[in-house]
GntR family transcriptional regulator (Wenjunlia vitaminophila), 251 residues
Amino acid sequence: MARTRPAAAQEPKYWHLKTVLNDALETDFAVGEVLPNERELAARFGVARATLRQALDQLELEGRLQRRRGVGTTVAGPRVGVPVARQHHGWPGSAHDSWRTTDCAEEPAPPAVATMLAVPANETVYTLRRLRMMGEQTVGTEELYIPRRTVPGISGFLAAGGRARVVLRELQGLRLQGEPRSVELGVAGAEDARQLDRLPGSPVLVVTTRYVSEERVAAVAISTYRADTCRLTFDGSGEVEVTPYDTRQAS
């Protein structure tokens, strides 16, 4: 039986409008400028407001627009280049670490993290919450999970700030064998959204780092970056590991 080639899909109206709007952003608006309201834009381009919203949503996803509470929709600046693999590798808290610790708690790790750390699901670990800043802008949030076996002997009576400093200092005494990373697209939870000035459910880039020492995972960091404004950059090793998606996990 001869195969027939499927007909080309017609371009949706909102997609064409997105292209038109993108050109207008380049010529008619400056970075940081607030766009007219939806009614004015819909009338200007002769489209329904539902079509306009779809186009604006796509431009926001691509990092061309930024919606902020109490401000409106503004033209976004260029994406921020965020180096993920450092030139000088080391434990969190080392001299080359670009994260700032805001809290340290003792609580069970999420199930997926507990599996990576090979600890029981109900076992408490040290959880350090950290922020990454570039200038005045928060570009990333991070939760760093460290099991007690990695840093034994730390007093539970220390205040959160002191406990965080001691935990990070203890890490520096261990031999770091590797920092394998994986990157995937995710959505912002309520706390990450608040820290990153985004709405809950907004797209984010999630970087999972496993710190290996003595042939086992000694710590796990889950770093969350804004997908609309950040461009993650890696070192020049050129090594990329592709993990096939397991459809059984989605069932």
Notes: The domain at 80-235 is CATH 3.40.1410.10 (Chorismate lyase).
